[in-house]
Amino acid sequence: MSLISSMLTAGRWIRVTCEAVTTALFGLVVVAFAYGVTSRYIFGVPSRNADEIAVILFLWVIMFGAGLAVAPSEHISVDLVTARLKGRANRLTVGLGSLVAAAIFLYALPTTLDYVMFLRREVTPAMRLPLSFTYFCFVLFQGAAGMALLARGILVLSGFQSTKAGLSASEEAL
């Protein structure tokens, strides 16, 4: 199995895992919200914990689901330059652009992690959870986005992925 096919397999596995995690987290948001409504309006005892859990989980759902909500081929992209280029020039521009964006995301990752870890001294109002737990989803998102851009750059430059987002080279030919 080549490195490229391993990358494609890993990408599919990661996508399926993220879809499952996002679905489970959204289910928990619904349960927490329903519990909060039930405890407030049926039992007359508002639950601050349920509200806080729902807000924190929703933030995690947004970060996990950000890349899953819209297919990559449907993302808004500025391709004024790349649309005019053909062949190898197009592939180099898109591939190198992806690698530069990946480098920026991954270069800034330690700073993001440092700030999120700095937030551990602050806690949430109801459950007293460290804010680092609440905002760690930003670190995961930034790292995943950086790695996805790195993989895309490698795949585009090697000819295994189209320069059009989300399409394989064989799909683009259709």
How does the SSE layout of this entry go?
Blueprint: H1 3-41, H2 48-65, H3 87-118, H4 131-158, H5 169-173
Beta-strand percentage range:
under 5%
Dominant shape: elongated
Report on the biggest sheet: none
Number of separate strands: 0
The poorly predicted ranges are 166-174
Please give the share of residues in helix. Answer: over 70%
| Mean residue pLDDT | 87
The sequence of SSEs as H and E is HHHHH
Calculate Rg over CA atoms.
Answer: 20 Å
Spatial separation of the terminal alpha carbons: 26 Å
SSE class? mainly alpha
Total separate domains: 2
Output the number of helix runs. 5
Notes on the protein architecture:
With 174 residues, the chain is mainly α. It has two domains: 1-69; 74-174. Helices cover 70% and strands 0% of the residues. The chain is built from five helices and no strands. The protein has helices at residues 3-41, 48-65, 87-118, 131-158, 169-173. α1 packs antiparallel against α2. It is elongated, with a radius of gyration of 20 Å. The two termini are 26 Å apart. 17% of the residues are buried.
Which features would summarize this protein structure in a list?
174 residues, mainly alpha, 2 domains, elongated, 70% helix
Short description:
The chain is built from five helices and no strands.
